Amino acid sequence: MNTSHGYAVETDVPQDPELPLVTGAVIRKDRGRYLIRASDRVVPCSISAMLRKRLIYPTRDPASLGHFEVLRIDDIKAIDPVAIGDNVAFVDAGDGTGMIKEVLPRKNQISRLAAGPIPLEQVLVANVDQMVAVFAAARPKPKWHLLDRYLVTAEVAGVPALICITKMDLVNARSDAPGLDAAVRRYRALGYGVVLTSCEDGRGIDEVRAMFKDRLSILMGKSGVGKSSLLNALEPGLGLRVRAVGSGSVGKGRHTTTHLETVPLSGGGGVVDTPGMRELALWRARPEELPWFFPEFRPSLGECKYGASCVHDSEPGCAIKQAVDNGDVSVPRYESYLKLLKEMS
Ligand code: GDP
Ligand code: ZN
């Protein structure tokens, strides 16, 4: 190669056709199309066939936690190897579009089991800073067991969780929401932040804004609990569609949307809403690992009479049941544990 004039002269050796890789974060995806935010622009990208084949994010073996099992390539066709929040390296095609070549290592991921006969892991979002579980104080009535399911999901993923109770304007009298005060106290005592909000009177909105600032948050909550309203209150001008009162049954899967996206916050940070969330099968852990994901159980683990074989159900000499009797573990949380345990076995 002659470079005496300061530039490379063509030789017989083929030049590497690879263009330089640019890195960015996935902010939206919809059926194989991705929007990537790079430092100075947003680039629509596809994904390389190589990546689809090479990537081994296929599944979480249902019998193990945190250990990935590689499925045959045939089996992973349906699973998208790129998640919202992923940092990726892409090739700039020069026409304003790009092609994703590589997913950079994740700091965490929140997954659910994809529907179907084989247990495939579907990563909803990667690299999140916090999960925000959203429940309405009323209309629809909060389901604390579902909250515990979300909190376990966050614990499994190693993601901090925050609880937001919306529509506080609907519960001016204590009798409007029996059990709400107790639940708020229960979760605060466990160390989870609980924010009480209303889009009607504006309470808690500044607090939520401060907690969302400069972080990537994933919202978990059934449709109708007020997630869009909350985001609209945080970001006036966003104009997310809010469902009219009385349109269909609250809390039943209304969304059919397949896309997921990050809503950017003007103060910095972003929020991923989860339309079309199936509430079931969010995660799989081994039944014997479940107690670990209830933080208040941890001091008692290993103290049971039957040791590691105790599932803390009806065995004699169970330290967890003892903790329930002492009041160190609350009854509703223990019941949630038993319910989840039953689903898993
Ligand atoms: P999403 O499905 O979780 O996004 O819920 P939406 O934001 O679409 O809200 C569902 C319904 O709850 C709508 O009728 C909203 O007007 C109503 N809503 C949302 N936030 C509040 C609130 O703070 N107070 C009251 N009273 N209603 C609310
Ligand atoms: Zn036990």
Q: What's the rounded overall pLDDT mean?
A: 81
CATH architecture of the largest domain: 3-Layer(aba) Sandwich
**Largest sheet, spatial ordering of strands:** 1-2-3-7-6
Query: What is bound: which ligands?
Result: guanosine-5'-diphosphate, zinc ion
Beta-strand fraction estimate: 15-25%
Q: Could you name the ranges where pLDDT drops below 50 across 5 or more consecutive residues? A: 1-16, 55-78, 246-257
Please give the number of β-strands: 15
Q: What is the helix/strand order?
A: EEEHEEHEEEEEHEHEHEHEEHH
The level-1 CATH class of the largest domain: Alpha Beta
Radius of gyration: 23 Å
The portion of residues assigned to helices is 10-25%
Describe it for me?
The structure is a single chain. The chain folds into 3 domains: 4-105, OB fold (Dihydrolipoamide Acetyltransferase, E2P) (Beta Barrel), CATH 2.40.50; 111-117 and 123-273, P-loop containing nucleotide triphosphate hydrolases (Rossmann fold), CATH 3.40.50; 287-344, Probable gtpase engc, domain 3 (Ribonucleotide Reductase Protein R1, domain 1), CATH 1.10.40. A hairpin with a 2-residue loop joins β1 and β2. Strands 1-2-3-7-6 form a 5-stranded mixed β-barrel. A two-stranded antiparallel sheet has the order 4-5. The chain starts with 20 loop residues before the first strand and ends with a helix. The chain is α/β, with parallel strands linked by helices and 345 residues long. The longest helix is centred in the middle third of the chain and has 14 residues, at 144-157. Residues 1-16, 55-78 and 246-257 have low confidence and may be disordered. 21% of the residues lie in helices and 23% in strands. The protein is built from 8 helices and 15 strands. Guanosine-5'-diphosphate is lined by residues 166-167, 169-170, 198-200, 221, 223-229, 242-243, 245.
